[in-house]
Fold each of these.
Amino acid sequence: MAEARSMVGTTSGRTAADVQFHSWTAGADRQTLTDLAEEVRSFAPTIGLDELPLPDCLLLDITGCGPLFGGEVALAEQLTRRLKTMGFHTRATISDTVAAAWAFAHADHRVAIIRKRQRQKRSAPDRSAEWKLPVIIIPPGQAMDFLTDLPVSAGRFQPDDIDILEQLGISTLQRTLQLPLDDLPTRLSADAVRRIHQLLGTQEEQILPLPESDPVCARWTSEYSAGSRGAVRQILEHLCERISEQLIRRLVGASSLECTLQLDDQSVVMLHTEFVRPVQASEVLLDMLVLRMESCPITRPVVSATVQAGLSPLPTARQKDLFSSTEHIRPQEDLAVLLNRINNRFGQESALSVTLTQDPRPEYAAQLCPVTAADSADTGDRLSRLVTPELPDDRNTPQYHRPVRLLAHPQPITGLQNDLTGGTFRVAGHTESIVQSTGPERLQTAWWDDDAVHRDYYRVRTAAGSGYWLFRQLQTDDWFLHGVFD
Amino acid sequence: MSQAASRTDVIRRLRQRLLTAQQTPVTGPVVSSGLPQLDRLLPHGGLRPGSVVECVSTVPGLSAATLSLQCIRQLLQNPGAFAVIDSDHEFNSAAAAAVGIATERLLLIRPPRSESLPTPSARPRQSTPSACPRQLWSLEQTARCPGVRAVLCRLDRASSTVLRRLQLAVEASGVTVFLLRPASCLKLTSWADLRLQLDPEISPRHPATCLTVRVTHSRHAVEHHGIVRLKVHHETGVVSEVPQLADPATASFGIR
């Protein structure tokens, strides 16, 4: 520090009072980078530090992430903009390999300018580039074309290896990569050989992901327990606000909430909620927790409460309509809110989507499955299909009329003969007189089915005007009521 | 002007003002029901988004739900899901597909059954207990969701508070709710924007079943009159209009 202060007056012409001095520690840089990694987790699933003893950059694996941000250029621009708001001037480079991206990020543009002038003198094709840009993107497969202009220092070699290369008259990566690979171990260290292979792309380099720091969590505890539901609700409201602040700061959403309530008798009540779409708003978080709480009896006062969120990146809406940026996603968002409420109150089995099957048995003609699937992409597809007007699919459309009301279990009826017209039947002690019938429509399964069905269905109209769907079981000649044409 | 005539005139003007005060602005373009004769019967010439439509069958099994599904099919030409509140777990999705509704647009909401309520039977004329709170909650939540275009729900009984909340919910969201209600509701005040009464018309000579539809209540019309005769094809179940027959005198012209 003293040396630095003494150098200020002699070199720059300024006095020591004009310059701020900060002592440097390697650990501080590493910690700062680790903190930055938390801030940019929304841009890539894997974030790590380079392997150098004094890391000075973050490595992000953005494979497949470009479309989420509108392209790799937009991703890089948003990233640099985000870091700039935090007071950091950054350079983002995107390339095929870690080694190439590191090299381009640390490239010195003065070297590239010199090369360019040299080529211009020799009339060689100009393949240099302006490296001093905040965002540098090397097209896939073209990294080697640009790596050749960079100095040896961009190869992440150790100082000893750089000295050896300089002694050999090698100052650029181009000449370094042209060295015969078989002779490298005899001249350079094993680390240098590894770096060369990484630059060539013949050795894969993995990014060691930085573990997430403290999870998004909020906790309340007090020596005075909360005895009423209203008090518990206020506590949850406060915790949800804190959770929401953390989510907004990290630019992520909550895909699930885990709430643990400890009662005064040491018992624990767990409330688990899940969301169709990642959520940030505290009101929505609280709403879902309250819905869950309604189905869980809390009979004792609460002494502590903990809420932890499961994180999920926020989807980026991409404009599809010419005149509206939200029209195509608004119905889906509204539907997601409805599904959140229904799922969290009644469970995922309460909101179902329908797919018609080819099963001849009417009770199995439709396959029901929860709208919210385990895979969020499937859920998004289902939401999109629910709200999008399309032509109906006629492939599985029943040929004949089907009753709107189909009894879960066919009810046996008595008093019917094969000639239905004019006949009467009793349903739960009530007599209906048939004035009109249509049928039979034979529905039967294949002979090899374990649950074989052989039925002749009839559509009947009674004297009162009611329409019923009856069937006669072929094996036993028994009659059943299966549906009502409501 | 006599006193009776002046009183009648005053009552008529007061009724008009009352109805005008009850009217809400139409929240979107009126959608045809698919049946021109029925459209002429409806106050706005069709179905209004953000409204509650009650379909009351004087007898069960009168295709009231089928008629509702055909109207909903027209509404689904606009974006939004079609939600069915199926608390009895008896809704047949194949029936909706047969009417022409894509099953991908169908959202089936089945709130868990309350253990205190008996399992519903196929005896339609027996009075059923009041609606399950879970069903009412699901209905209101769905009616509040702008991402839903139409809702179909069988509702036997509900208090005025519930129906008023439902009315406010659809006015805010623009959802059209179709309620299938039993004949016992005809004696009760309607909170719906529109109440249609369906009566059977049995004619052994006709291959199809005929039914009459009349508007018994509307928030947007002073007088309710007019009947539409519809027929339900017995095989396909399609509800269509009964064609107006030509004058029998002209039909006998060719018979000599």
Amino acid sequence: MRVITYRDALREALREEMLANPDVFLLGEDIGVYGAPFKVTKGLLEEFGPHRVVETPISESAIVGVAAGAAACGLRPVAEISYMDFLGIAMDQILSNVSKIHYISNGLFRQPLVIRSAYGAGGRSGAYHSQSLEALFAHIPGLYVAMPSTPHDAKGMLKAAIRDDNPVLFLEHKLLYGVKGPVPEEEYLVPLGKAEVRREGQDITLVASGMMVSKALRAAARLEEEGVDADVIDLRTVKPLDVETVVASVKKTGRLLVTHEGHQICGVGAEVAAIVSKEAFGYLDGPIERVCVPDNPIPLSPPMEDYCLPSEDRLAEVALAMVIPAQRR
Amino acid sequence: MGVIKSDALSMYRWMVLTRRFEEKVVALYKQRGSAEMPHSSIGQEAVGVGVCYGLRRDDWVLPSLRTRAAFLVRGISCRHQMAAVFGKDTPQAGGKNTSHHMGDPNLGLMVGGGIVGGGIAVGVGAGLACKYRNSGAVSVVFFGDGASNRGDFHEALNLAGVLKLPVVFVIENNQYAMSTPLSRSTACRRLCDRSASYGFPGAQVDGNDVLAVHEAAQEAVDRARQDSIPTLLECVTYRWRGHSERDVDTPYRTVEEVEQWKLRCPIKRLHNQLLAWGCSERELETIDESCCAEVEDAAAYMDSAPYPSPESAAAGVYVGA
């Protein structure tokens, strides 16, 4: 199978959906000749023209609000908000319009739109360009939140998101854009709301999202050397959350470690932990652990930033301690 | 003036219907309370009627929380609106939304939300959809003087101006944002002058002269439809009652001021104009009687309409789920 970058996979998804459906159009800042800050839209203006690749001024609130209005009229906008840190500007449009229109209109209107946004730390981008705020948006009824971790999923999930009549916040970790992976040539979709078991094991369940999936897999390789075998589950979407896959795994392993880049406090891991502690209570051999980001903004300086982010060392250390009691290690 | 008498009579009826409906809502609210806190448009009827009369079915209208007339003119029945005020089941809201934010895609009525100024960009999005589809349809968005101070107003109008979208922005300037008078909320003198920042025309009109409102609105609608250029149309008017029925004494304005504006009642004004054009008092009385009957019918309908089931609160959040 051919191997392409996460960025190219996203561009293919956009292009294919724009070719297939004339109602799909893009809007956002710098998405034209510049190709957008992470180059996902490069070439699309030249191919589709300004009618379908609509460049906007710096106005995140209007970008999302206009997308909401266009979607309510039956078009299928894909809005780009360059960095998820800027979603705060558009927060009311997401909270009051995008997420509520279908419900409060008693189903007469829909919001078949996608908001694509780059998130995540490790890129030395500081507190205003590194945030992982998926938990804030998962808390809002009416909004789906997607976090693909591979080029394959990026393409399949973006196509699915564009075709979905629900509004989807589509989060792309900025350090994943250059990562390569196998992506089929033929048409495929990855349904939203289905987690993927990336690795199977008996001893512990590691649940991860986005950038943390590859770190969890590398930690699992280290654990294997210590005789500990891990299930690694890629959540893929925070909303809908695939509870069944996680619960089934914990019923097998008896141990759960959740890791994400969002802050630990009131993060997605808290939701996963609460669900599992109820659904698999009798199967747990010990407390659920979360390895996430502390309750501070992401600082700029490299050693400080690295300190904040869950590393594969830390994952392996915590997982090992959960499986092998201290006195036997 | 290009308006023919039959159009003027129709606009008269719409204003009277709006007035009688709003009066009934207040009366029922005082008797028994309501699910929805009434925000009366009494006194402002000419703005919604003058702007919406004559629009195409496929044009989009996004009313403000106080543009009762827009819902009536676009075609939502008194029955459904009255039922929604009292939280009863309706096709447009299902108990989930207020009567003054309902939408109906078959009537070109965009659903609204409860954030002042939050819908302006949505109205611009509808304008973008009209241009995208090359349908010739336009989008008309209503909001108040207070909403025009929101950051979202600026972003939305700027985007409409730079993308050249077929939108008519209607400011229902009733000179108060709840208790804050215009002089203390806005540093610029005429709200329509703000359009200069966005590169498109603005106009101010007497919002209590429904024929003047209609003429100005038609000009703006034509500009949007033919040239895809927006307009900021400021209609100066006044609300007779408080911001809502919680705001009864309106301590921020004088009784004299309210009485002065009541003398400029938009309905009385057109009433007198119609008499001058040869209509009879009896003809106009008949219109009032028929409106009262329609409103009474709506109240009776509301009384016997059921509430939606409690469990329906959890349904309809996601499509297909």
